[in-house]
């Protein structure tokens, strides 16, 4: 049995560095052998970090003598379908960043290609949503399952970014600013990572109602969302998404998540780089992760990559099957419909039946140390 999974990174932007650096910290069984990007600067930089061989295209990498068994597709949303199909046609395992596609039809075609590749070549399809491995989220879910805050009443999530120094602000033509390329605005992009924890806490979704706005005009899609989510249990939660092109008055004091129960609440604050806190308001005592355990949103990338490698190398189960990742996309699409109709919209519309009932509500990732 091969002890290390040889991976080609397709798309060597900022997010690729988080994936490979965190995978190394988690001792994931990953060996990056190829870095692929149209940008010479990007592919060479990641090659220096990983020791992989840089290539300008996936085709060039496939035709070379460099070996890899899997491809991590970390590309703009509009390129997911094209390159997912190419990866499967090359008989390679696929690690695909969220969202799977920009719309239902794209996703259907990707799943069809994945089904064929699994049947014919044994390929693993991994739909990446790292929030399920986010240490603070895992700890909070564990507390909820243990009944620490009693019966769940409601929850609130607030995703916010201040992008004054980001490529989105500096380059109006950045792909994330384009509705056509991204599939929407902030909710279908970074906001997806805040929808997954709500599902982890509250269960599977049913309907949504939302309003959207564009306070940051550089972003063609929505940069502000107020959404209500009704779960299949009948309980409700809310999400706010705020993306600004300048420094925000919110600062870092606004909680990312608040989960309220009959005996208390859990508040999650922190930063992308770490230092997150899980705070129980029930007794005023901070309930941090065990000493020495990495914290923060970015830590989740390493645990996720480790789960992918174990699935390929040792046939271990995926913590969340690819169908789970459709939930966040369908929530976003339903929110967009609601912002036009001004009504509650069903998340699981006709044609999405194959992705329903795939979300295991009680499981915790074994990879994350708690």
What would you say this structure looks like, in words?
- The structure is a single chain.
- By secondary structure, this protein is α/β, with parallel strands linked by helices.
- Helices cover 32% and strands 22% of the residues.
- The protein is built from eleven helices and 14 strands.
- It has helices at residues 14-25, 40-50, 58-63, 80-89, 104-121, 135-145, 167-170, 179-182, 192-202, 299-314, 326-341; strands at residues 5-10, 30-36, 53-55, 70-73, 93-96, 125-127, 152-162, 205-213, 224-231, 236-244, 257-261, 264-269, 277-280, 345-346.
- The strands form two sheets. Strands 13-12-11-7-10-9-8-14 form an eight-stranded mixed beta sheet. Strands 3-2-1-4-5-6 form a six-stranded parallel beta sheet, sandwiched between helices.
- A hairpin with a 7-residue loop joins strand 12 and strand 13.
- Helix 4 packs parallel to helix 5 (104-121) and helix 9 packs across helix 11 (326-341).
- It is globular and about 60 Å long.
- The model has no long low-confidence stretch (mean pLDDT 90).
Strand order of the largest sheet: 13-12-11-7-10-9-8-14
Radius of gyration, CA atoms, in whole angstroms: 20 Å
The number of distinct β-strands equals 14
- How many DSSP helices? 11
Report the biggest beta sheet as strand number plus sense, adding barrel if it closes: 8 strands, mixed
Helix content: 25-40%
């Amino acid at each position: 049995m091969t002890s290390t999974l040889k991976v080609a990174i397709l798309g060597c932007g900022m997010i690729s560095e988080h994936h490979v650096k965190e995978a190394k910290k988690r001792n994931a069984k990953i060996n990056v052998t190829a870095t692929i990007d149209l940008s010479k600067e990007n592919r060479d930089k990641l090659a220096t970090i990983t020791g992989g061989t840089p290539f300008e295209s996936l085709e060039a990498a496939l035709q070379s003598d460099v070996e890899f068994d899997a491809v991590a597709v970390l590309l703009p949303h509009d390129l997911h379908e094209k390159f997912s199909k190419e990866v499967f046609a090359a008989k390679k395992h696929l690690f695909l960043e969220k969202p799977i596609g920009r719309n239902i039809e794209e996703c259907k075609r990707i799943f069809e290609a994945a089904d064929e590749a699994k049947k014919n070549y044994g390929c693993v399809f991994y739909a990446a949503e790292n929030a399920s491995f986010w240490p603070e989220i895992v700890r909070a879910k564990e507390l909820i399952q243990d009944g620490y805050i009693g019966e769940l009443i409601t929850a609130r999530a607030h995703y916010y970014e201040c992008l004054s120094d980001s490529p989105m602000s500096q380059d109006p033509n950045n792909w994330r600013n384009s509705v056509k390329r991204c599939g929407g605005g902030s909710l279908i992009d970074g906001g997806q990572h805040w929808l997954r924890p709500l599902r982890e806490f509250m269960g599977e979704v049913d309907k949504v109602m939302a309003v959207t706005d564009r306070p940051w005009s550089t972003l063609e899609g929505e940069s502000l969302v107020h959404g209500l989510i009704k779960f299949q249990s009948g309980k409700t939660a809310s999400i706010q998404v705020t993306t600004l092109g300048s420094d925000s008055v919110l600062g870092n004091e606004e909680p990312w998540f608040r989960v309220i129960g009959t005996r208390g609440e859990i508040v999650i604050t922190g930063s992308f780089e770490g230092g997150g806190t899980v705070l129980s308001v029930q007794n005023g005592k901070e309930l941090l992760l065990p000493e020495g355990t990495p914290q923060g949103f970015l830590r989740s990338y390493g645990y996720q990559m480790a789960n992918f490698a174990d699935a390929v190398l040792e046939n271990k189960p995926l913590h969340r099957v690819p169908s789970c990742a459709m939930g966040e996309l369908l929530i976003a699409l339903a929110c967009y419909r609601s912002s036009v109709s001004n009504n509650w919209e069903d998340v699981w519309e006709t044609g999405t039946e194959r992705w329903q009932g795939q979300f295991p509500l009680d499981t915790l990732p074994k990879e994350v140390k708690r």
